[in-house]
Amino acid sequence: MTYNFDFAAVLAYWPLLLEGIWTTLRLTLFCTVFGILLGGACAVVRTGGPTWARWIVSLYVEFIRNTPLLVQCYFLIFGIASMGIRLPILVGATIALTVNIGAYTTEIVRAGIESIHRGQLEAATCLGLSRTQTYLHVIIRPALERVYPALSSQYVLLMLASSIVSSVGVEELFGISNRIQSETYRNFEIFVVLGGIYLGLAILVRGGFALLGLAMFPRRRKLGTPL
Amino acid sequence: MSPIVELKDVRKSFGELEVLKGVTFEVNRGEVAAIIGQSGSGKSTALRCMDRLETIQGGSMLICGHELHDDDIDLKSLRRDVGIVFQSYNLFPHLTVAENIMLAPRMVKGMKQRQAREIADTVIAKVGLREKMDCYPEQLSGGQQQRVAIARSLAMEPKLMLFDEVTSALDPQLTGEVLRVMEQLAADGMTMILVTHEMAFARKVADRVIYMRDGKVHEMGSSDILRMPATPELAAFVAESAEH
Amino acid sequence: MNSAYILSLLQGLWATVVLSLLTFLFGGIAGFIVALARISRNWAISRGAAAYIEIMQGLPLLVLMGLCFYGPSILGYDSLSPLTAATFALTLYSSAYLGEIWRGCIQAVAKPQWEAAECLGLTRWQRMRAVILPQALRIAIPPTVGFLVQIVKNTSIASLVVGYAELSYNAKIINNATFEPFLYFGIAALMYFAICYPLSVQSRALERKLNVANR
Ligand SMILES: Nc1ncnc2c1ncn2[C@@H]1O[C@H](COP(=O)(O)OP(=O)(O)OP(=O)(O)O)[C@@H](O)[C@H]1O
Ligand SMILES: [Mg+2]
């Protein structure tokens, strides 16, 4: 049996694919911003907050990291809906993905914070910097610089994993391809095309993070060595 | 001349361990005091108490007009008046030399970038590292990093500088360049208290030598006491140091 | 709460365990080959392995599932069962990550040990088997146990494209009938947690022990 590949039939839907790419990228961007804010805040609490707050953060981190994203999405998105709260599906997906990536971010940033030497804090204290100033300029900034490579990889994985929210009805790249599937029946070709696009997106997101890193961390730009 | 540093019967314990057992001494404005003594005698602890990195449990301590025993002490203003430099330079590795120096003037004193930069230019010249302004700490030698750490403290225009064995981590060649900077500071009239193992340096620049032993001031006087110690313990300590 | 539903969840849990074990078995074998290929002195082989890793790490698992599900029938084979397709996809996916983890472990040991073993006059493969691998195995265990957690979590994706009826699939079916998402997805999450959390803890404990031993 010979199979006639028909990629043209799939590629004819390029406006739809573009729309999906755009949604995937937007979703990734929002979750990156919120995820870093959430994860950064949790990491600060986890390393310097009161005991009860550390506990809550640990619980959150452990629970998210030891359950599948898919079940988290079902739980949150269907759960919110079952309470009678009507959220646009893209908002729900952003919440679910942010809650997920926030936990991973917390762990990564926490490791960065803990790698900052105590002498650094003492130096900042002696210079008269306040607690907040010390956190911002002497702890968080170098911690982020140190864990930036790990963070970037995690967020590339987030972009790829965002395909999972198609299962709750988000028409991002993967979800929108279901429509093409039902109209063309070119299942295999669709997955090949999707694979190619996702590979491209992974390179794009990785490149984006690399550029952002150069902009944010002048030391790395000038010396090129890890902190 | 009024004392700028006044310790009276200062006591400090870590848990069960009493480290300072009633330390009393004074340092006047413009004076250089050298604290010497065996390892574990409480020199660092005394110094750290003066910048309130540790709190004291007994006695009183007056530093640049701040009574350190007060609970509502204005820490920000104390740390403006007091600069401290440690054996480990603790420069911020993600900032350039200039940024290291300008951080506190901008954050604590709320200076504008330009004003802070002027101060940075002044203090970096004092430590002789003008050409290194845009380097990162890892690009500097240990001696250069320590000089930057001194400059960073000076940028806050302190009234009192504390040094805790600032040359202990350095090779002999690099030690010299840091000591020269400190000597110049002393000549410029800065009030300084330094914990040091460099007896020759103490003899040369110190107006006052404080020999600590077992959490107390055992002997104190002008640098002459290093040549003619009154107590046998100091005599032994000086002899021992000379061997090394 | 209905006992039939709980039974269905437990069946799903069993299916999850089966798929995880199959994945670890085949993914482990394939991952070992990938790791060896990656450190091969043959340029083409090591570049090939690197490209393979790169591609697998740049694809969503969902897409890989689709390719493995629909691909074989195009090549003229019968279409795969959901379990086979899911195992196939997860094996490809895991082999890339495990290969990369193990390559790191082998190289961490190899650098200092290589020359010592060279002095003994062993061939490259002998050195690898007698000296390098036993030591690499030791440091490979904590991250490998950690990756088991990823495998278990990733099996949930098999419920989507290929429709393998594991835990999250059954939970979804139950939710469609009961509309009690917090309850049933909550229980499903707890079941995943019951498997994954001990593995995570174990991985960290092993890691710590190793760090202490190396000091
Ligand atoms: N944070 C602390 N907690 C508990 N004990 C401490 C602490 N800091 C210092 N000590 C103890 O206090 C004593 C005095 O320490 P200190 O560092 O002041 O000595 P030192 O005279 O500076 O010695 P060195 O010459 O070795 O620097 C030591 O026995 C030390 O173990
Ligand atoms: Mg000391």
- The CATH topology of chain C corresponds to MetI-like fold
What is the H/E string of chain C?
Answer: HHHHHHH
Can you give the mean pLDDT of chain C? 91
Q: Kindly provide the radius of gyration of chain B, computed on alpha-carbon positions and rounded to a whole number of angstroms.
A: 18 Å
Biggest sheet features of chain C: none
- Shape estimate of chain C: flat
Tally of individual helices of chain C: 7
Helix content of chain C: over 70%
Rg for CA atoms of chain C = 20 Å
Helix- and strand-based class of chain B?
alpha/beta
CATH architecture label of chain C: Orthogonal Bundle
Contiguous runs where pLDDT drops below 50 for at least 5 residues of chain B: none
Q: How many β-strand stretches of chain B?
A: 10
Task: Specify the CATH class of chain B.
Answer: Alpha Beta
Please state roughly what percent of the residues of chain B sit in beta strands, choosing from under 5%, 5-15%, 15-25%, 25-35%, 35-45% or over 45%.
25-35%
Percent strand of chain C equals under 5%
Helix content of chain B: 25-40%
Could you tell me how far the N terminus lies from the C terminus of chain C, measured between alpha carbons in angstroms? 52 Å
Describe the global form of chain B: globular
Number of domains of chain C: 1
